[in-house]
Write a structure and sequence with these properties.
Blueprint (H helix, E strand, L loop, with lengths): L9 H6 L11 H9 L14 H8 L20 H17 L4 H13 L13 H11 L1 H7 L6 H13 L9 H9 L1 H13 L25 H16 L4 H11 L4
Helix pairs in contact: 2-11, 3-5, 4-5, 4-10, 4-11, 4-12, 5-8, 5-10, 6-8, 8-9, 8-10, 11-12
Length: 254
C-alpha cells in the first residue's frame, strides 16, 4: 500500500505540535529513535511456545479489517499491531497463561487499533474496535486458526474496548467489565504501551506508571529493538508485515 511521505521528520513535527492526522515513519525519525535508546541492557525475550509462534505468524491483519486504509502503514497501523501482539504473547508467557488465554490476549492485541480513523488522539477507537470484533468474531478467530467461544469473544472485546481508557478514568460500567477480564485487559494495555518507542517524542515513550503489569520493565529492551529493527526494515523496502516478521525472527519469536 502506497503512502505519501512527509518532507519534515515526525520528530520535528512533534516538537512544533504540527503532527498530521496520518503519520508515517521517516529515516530521520528512525535515527532519532536509535540514538535515544535507553540503557536497557540486552534484549533477549523469554522463549515462546509453538502455539504462540503460530499465532504471531498469522498476526498481520487483512487490509479490509481497517476502518481507515491510510492507517495500514502508519504509526498505528500493521507494524504497531503486530509488535503489540508479539509483546502480548511474551507477557502471556511470563504469566504462564494456557494456550486458550494466550490466544485471547494475542488476538486482542492484534486487532485493538483496527477501527482507528487517524494517528492522533482518536477517542473511542477502542469501543469501535470492540463492536467490530463482536460482529466479525468468526472471521477473526478463523484467521488465527482458532474457534470462537462466547466467553473469549467477551474477554477480547472488553480488553479492546478498555485499552484506550486510562485506569483512572474507568466508570462503574468499565470497572464491572474489567472485573470480568482484568488480566486480559492488563496485558493488552501493557503490550500497547510497550510499543510506544515508535513515537517521536521522549515523553510519549513507555511509562510503567500507566499500566498494571509487573513484567513491564522486563520487556522494555525487546520492545525497543522490535521497533528499531522493523521500522528500519520497512524504510528499506519491506512491507509492514515482512518488516515485523523479520524483527520477530531475529528474536526467535516466529
Amino acid at each position: 500500500m502506497s503512502t505519501t511521505p512527509t518532507t519534515t521528520s515526525l520528530v520535528d513535527l512533534a516538537a512544533r505540535r504540527q503532527l498530521p492526522y496520518h503519520q508515517y515513519m521517516d529515516p530521520a525519525t528512525v535515527e532519532w529513535i536509535k540514538a535515544n535508546r535507553p540503557g536497557l541492557g540486552a534484549a533477549w525475550p523469554p522463549p515462546l511456545r509453538p502455539a504462540s509462534k503460530h499465532l504471531l505468524s498469522r498476526s498481520a491483519l487483512p487490509a479490509t479489517w481497517l476502518a481507515e486504509p491510510r492507517l495500514h502503514d502508519s504509526l498505528h497501523g500493521l507494524r504497531h499491531s503486530m509488535r503489540t501482539a508479539a509483546l502480548a504473547a511474551l507477557l502471556a508467557e511470563i504469566h504462564e497463561l494456557d494456550d486458550t488465554e494466550t490466544a485471547t490476549v494475542v488476538l486482542s492485541a492484534a486487532v485493538h487499533d483496527c477501527q482507528r480513523l487517524h494517528d492522533q488522539d482518536d477517542r473511542g477507537h477502542g469501543a469501535r474496535a470492540a463492536v467490530w470484533l463482536a460482529a466479525n468474531a468468526d472471521t477473526v478467530w478463523t484467521h488465527f486458526g482458532l474457534a470462537a467461544t462466547p466467553r473469549r469473544i467477551i474477554q477480547a472485546a472488553t480488553a479492546i474496548r478498555l485499552h484506550d481508557v486510562p485506569y483512572g478514568a474507568f466508570c462503574l460500567d468499565d470497572q464491572a467489565d474489567y472485573h470480568r477480564a482484568g488480566l486480559i485487559c492488563d496485558l493488552v494495555k501493557a503490550a500497547d504501551a510497550l510499543d510506544r518507542y515508535r513515537l517521536p517524542k521522549l515523553s510519549w515513550w513507555p511509562d510503567a506508571r500507566h499500566v498494571r503489569e509487573p513484567a513491564f520493565d522486563q520487556l522494555r529492551a525487546v520492545a525497543f529493538d522490535l521497533v528499531a529493527v522493523s521500522e528500519t526494515a520497512h524504510l528499506a523496502g519491506a512491507s509492514s508485515a515482512e518488516a515485523v516478521l523479520y524483527a520477530l525472527a531475529e528474536k526467535g519469536l516466529v
